Amino acid sequence: MGKIISIFGAVVIAIFIVVGLYLAFRSVAALRQGYSWKEMDWNNDGATSISEFFAASDIGVRSVIVNGKKCRQFYAYKDGLPVKTDCPL
Q1: Predicted TM-score (pTM) of this structure
Q2: DSSP category for residue 81
Q3: pLDDT at 74 over 90
């Protein structure tokens, strides 16, 4: 019985390590994008959630012209569709 418990404990620890490494990787990838905390508010609700922070690693930025103004458009890497567009007032 003691051997089963120690194997189970090792599996649980291994799972925590893998999850921790994954979260660390996603955090570093999101930070390397260089977006400010305010820019990472993808749904424009006024607050950046932890899920929006992690989503930043999958979002790129490009310049676009909207109504004659130069704007920054954030887009999803997976399909190129816009996530949000920031234009100067």
Answers
A1: 0.74
A2: -
A3: yes
